[in-house]
Fold each of these.
Amino acid sequence: MSNDKDNFNMEDLAATLNYEDHAGLLNALKDKIQNLSGHHSDVLENLSPVVRKRVEVLRDIQNQHNEIEAKFFEERAALEAKYQKLYQPLYTKRYEIVNGIVEVEGISVEAEKDQEEDKASDEKGVPDFWLNAMKNNEVLSEEINERDEGALKYLKDIKWCRINDPKGFKLEFFFDTNPYFKNSVLTKIYHMIDEDEPILEKAIGTEIEWYPGKCLTQKILKKKPKTGSKNAKHVTKTEDCESFFNFFKPPQVPDDDEDIDEDTAEELQNLMEQDYDIGSTIRDKIIPHAVSWFTGESIQDDEIELDGEEGEDDIDEEEEDDEDEDEDEDEDDKKTNKKGGKSHTGENQHGERPPECKQQ
């Protein structure tokens, strides 16, 4: 007989959502179903009465499917809320150990021995934990430069939570007191048009309160005065530069779409996709598996996956090369046949047919 906590009771799971979130989710799903069921396509008007009747039955089946799908989304949200609560105590323990708030059981004796050998050692917790975890990820390592590392050493924790009005999720970066900026928490919020697709509507970041001369997203350029000019001062100019902290200043879609040309729209879309890729990487990979990224174990897992994908690409390229070689042989055969007055039957000089193109 299974334990009560192992029983899958959807009423209990739904209770993990607060009333407003739960009601908002249901209303959104109901609206979606009503829109789908109430939409009449012009296609129906062009169908014969018999076929139209069949399509109406199919639409009824689709509506039934949508109702079941709505329940699936509701239960999935409740299930996710349940497990987020189960993760929290583990994340709290991780936070306390990483930041030296609590000591790991049984480590104090060893620490005393180490201090006798090296009295200068006073490290607490796990230094540069989040910095190194992110640097070991291929997506995030491209965003972090040497200038950022000094500030990211003060990063104490990263959290995320789902938001329901509007739909999306929020990332929170908690920093210790540092010489770079005043903020103790930097946030990044993603608003989704359809979270299950997902389609990104916009992203909102915290405005960072940099201390004077410490801004990492801009660099100050000093221009020397012209030779011979008297009492001239150096001219200073600020210029945007690459930095991880640009993540909190995401690309924005103009209110008036008419102001965007095709090239600008494509560039903006690429920037938004890249921004979302960074955010989802932090949410789905770094936060739940931070220790594995810190130790480098997750790098190996990613490399195995990439090797598998590259292997498939290599096979495809080899097959394409073989096909190209066969086509070249066919061309040579055609030339030979033309010279000899022979007809070409599709067989090569070895009496074999060239391989057929692989259907994708």
Amino acid sequence: MVPEHSTILIAGSTGDLGERIAKALVHEGAHVRALIRRGTSLSKTVPLEQLGIEIVEVDYTNAAEMKAACTGVSCVVSALSGLEDVIIETQTLLLNAAVEAGVPRFIPSDYSMDYTKLPVGSNRNLDLRRDFMKRLDQAPIAATSILNGAFADMLTGMAPIVLFSHRRILYWDDADQPMDFTTKDNVATYTAKAALDNSAPRFLQIAGDQINARQLTILMSRLSGQRFRLLKAGSRGLLETLIKIARSCSKPSTDLYPAWQGMQYVHGMFSGLGKLEQIDNDRYAGIQWTSAKDILADHIHSFHV
């Protein structure tokens, strides 16, 4: 049952995850209002309009426009993606508009491992989320952060973990360290349900699967019919050193995911520092959680069709 006055405003709906969240909100029966930067191409806005989503074009720096866009909204969902100028500054403009318009709830663009436990400086992109969290927690608005571990497409080659051609599972330090994986579609569906849940807590943690490197070798051997083995890349200390070297050798860039940033995320996974502790998958009914087995089986099947 969708609660009354369930107009949800989403920022970042033209991005991959944001579009999935917008579609999930429509599926849940919400009235969806998409906040779009003025000048965004029709190729990005028309598909949203075809879903029945209300498009509101704004200048994020125009406080009056932003407040008007947030008026009558029950929850603001951010799926913005970027560095400091977006995650902190633009999200703060969005937050201020939500507060000014009297919006009761705000979901920030977190969608990651548990950054609250990571040492400061260990992950640039997640440090930005922690910095915004401080602003959000000081604002007179209820907040809910969705923490979901790594996006599951990392298992299909986005990260050097499952080395398909070499039949190896690469790991750092500990092959028995559990890791959290969740598909973007599962994250989107859960976020939509949380946006419509007026009693949602400050943090919700979800994982489509929790699996370690040793278990991945067994799983891949069964799925592929070939023997997969473990491949230890080194210790946590070595990975930390490699990250420092890679970062120091990189030229200044606005790249959201330089190689060293990916290495920082892998460190948070294999060190266990960003591990989700309390899994809230069962809070909402009707979600079919996609496992690592499902992801990898589909990937292997795609190469044999």
Amino acid sequence: MHLLFAIFLFFAVDSTPNFQVRYKLVYQPDSTNLNNIKEEAFLLSIKENKQSYFCSEGFWKADSIQGLRRTGLLSAAEYMGDPKYRFRTAFDKFIAKSLETRESRIFEKISFDQFEFSVPNHLKWEMGMEEDTIAGYACVKATTSFAGRDYVAWFAPELPIPDGPYLFWGLPGLIVKIGDTRNQYVFTLERFGAYTGVIKEWPEYASRRKVKEASAQKIYEYREEVRKDPFGVIERRLGPSTFNGVPTSDPSIKNSKAWNNNPLELKLIE
């Protein structure tokens, strides 16, 4: 069955259709608590096998709702009055990749700000000899290192798309599964198929020109500052305030996100 699909896909990719992949991420935000395991769904939309766009499903939905609000199709009263219009995500990041130039454009929300920056694809893959069947696809093993973690990937040669979740791409086939060697961040394909819907090519806030250009290093430093002391960042921006009646300068407030000590990127992307 997969052989017939691969033959169909070969001609489909050659005629440049669009595809969408749904991945599930299982991750451990607290390296000191093995029981704190979280999950989130992500979407990879591939346009004409030339560009792709990646974000969490929660980000996609929330950003689409903001588009409806901007165009007046959803009123502020409707939005505030019905919780079905509000979506959350732990990953406020949107990644646009050019499969031709091998560069990624990243839009990221951090605290009060929205940033835009570029990173080249410098991943160095080592091809393995091992094979396995994952999510119904015959896969080949490959390994790499990225942002302070070592990763094992499984890609499907029968799906000739050199892409994958997040900033993992460049293999001769779609990445079906990839995880770091400690199994703290593991992406697994849940669904793949042709896609005829609208592809989101940038976040809604980017279309309103509210994005700040910055370097990857500045973004990483600011992201770490917010991750380690979110209320301190707010206090430095807006002045003293309270959270649930407690001053944000209180040590217990500053440490209220101590569990968030294990980000996907442990160091600056090189």
Amino acid sequence: MVVASLLVTVALQAATTPPGGVWQDDYKVNANGNPVKEPHMAGTSILAHIQRIAYGQFMIFNPLPFLSSLSIILLLLSGLPIKRRSLRNISLADMRGMLKDVTDVSVVCWLCLMGVVFMGNVVRLCVWVLRKWGYLKQKEKKDSDEDD
């Protein structure tokens, strides 16, 4: 459980602070006011800008330890009999009913959360495909000069 918690922490930290860091400034025009060939915006990943393939691999493989560790933690807390070493088996007999209720609710909440995340990604994929095929209008790009 300690190792799973550590993996969750590392994966979450890596997701919030990607390798290489993030750009600290906007770079859209050079000193002469001409647009630059490869602009970047503050807060976007440097690795995504410099090495797209490596960043894509990072974005694919970073959630795997996060989700697997969360699953391991949930399984350990749920009381599944793993050689009779679970929270239910080490708890007092009069508390097992309450512990069962808590773990059942936790499992249902986790499954609902995973379902919402899955459905959100399915909707995003459908919108992306529909835009790609031309059934939906492309997003209009915001110009940062209009905000100033």
